[in-house]
């Protein structure tokens, strides 16, 4: 989608569609008031009829408004201005973009509301508008004919700026919004692809394709032999149950000074998780194609970093495998020696994410990282704890945890912290190895994080459990692109670009 800026009188803007903001039962203000004056009170007349006092998220389409050059006017109702929340703001904009795509417009000029929800400034409001538009435009079509495609997709959107608005801020908002949305789009698409297409080799090929699009990016893919030489037996033990060769994808983005320590992102890239010998129940097992969404979010952040030219060094590491039952698969009770030298008793082969991550986390030491963040659809327990709204955040680094929480709040891609206290560590005790790979039913998301913490002692580290947020189920089934926005926000702030 092409994004531009418009200034000047609204009534004389040429556009197939002009989108204006109104608030329920409140006198017209800002852009809507301008158009009302230009049209000799046409909007006020509607308002008096009561047609504008709908609920949040309602839109109303007007044709042939006198005194206005635009072919159509779309009014979006943000409800009561005093009750405007970020969620309502998003909902209304999404409804407006949907409405535009049902017309034969293709292009629109958008005047955002003059009153914004708490915690949102002009920059965030504009950035979010770009992201919502991109989000609504995205359609999964890789393996189907798009029968319900919009009448005419939105191909160009202009943000209209009032006289007192700062165009430099808006330009920055558009650039950032487009970059984040692009990263989210990649993450969504990879998540949505079925397991028989999006295999570890496919993910690796996508990383190589990304390298070709991004100047500052170098990609290296480690094969099973290289992993064996490094002693990555935990990772390899999971891959043994699959016919698909595992991959360790390493993406290096060099935007900072050569001697600057990199931020390392490690994403779980389990392209299908059947559970292995500890087989999962059949219901909704298809959703385990999304078990690579952590890895996909790392690719997405890498793409966003390139688009933003972030002035820092970044490394993305994606251990990738399938987890299937097989004659050569892990069995409950098997013991493996991880790359760190610590032994692991695999009491449940379905707790495989931590097995592939622990070796990738040990591998990270070689980058002398400033900090490491891993992102994983790690536990069903996290979904039970936090539902589908918040990413689970775990870290014993107070400053890093605070930075990530703030980034999530600002980006509208929120995380919530759960404890990582030593009290939970004993749940991983076993008589036969240094640790078990499961800690029982209690605090399952926490004991999974505790497991990972045993491999991250030598650097600053945080863990994001995205099991609840990476995709939606039911009618809306599809990848969300989370937490690309949180992570990119974190990096923007670290780069001093915010
Ligand atoms: N990929 C799953 C976690 C998951 C489950 C994410 C459901 C989203 C929805 C992970 O590999 C897994 O199977 N975890 C087990 C761990 C258990 C065996 C300790 C789980 O959560 O049931
Ligand atoms: Mn599993
Ligand atoms: Zn899994």
What composes the largest sheet? 9 strands, mixed
**Unreliable runs:** none
| Discrete helix count | 14
End-to-end separation: 24 Å
Which architecture of the largest domain would the CATH scheme give at its second level?
Answer: 3-Layer(aba) Sandwich
User: What percentage of amino acids are in beta strands?
Assistant: 15-25%
> Could you name the CATH topology of the largest domain?
Aminopeptidase
- Average predicted confidence as pLDDT: 97
At the first level of CATH, the class of the largest domain is Alpha Beta
Overall 3D shape: elongated
Query: What is the C-alpha radius of gyration, as a whole number of Å?
Result: 25 Å
Structural class: alpha/beta
Count structural domains.
2
Roughly what percent helix?
Answer: 25-40%
Number of beta-strand segments: 20
* Small-molecule components bound: ligand BES, manganese (II) ion, zinc ion
* CATH H-level superfamily title of the largest domain: Zn peptidases
Key terms:
19% strand; 14 helices; elongated; six-stranded mixed sheet; binds ligand BES; alpha/beta; Leucine Aminopeptidase, subunit E, domain 1; nine-stranded mixed sheet; 498 residues; binds zinc ion; 35% helix; binds manganese (II) ion; 2 domains; Aminopeptidase
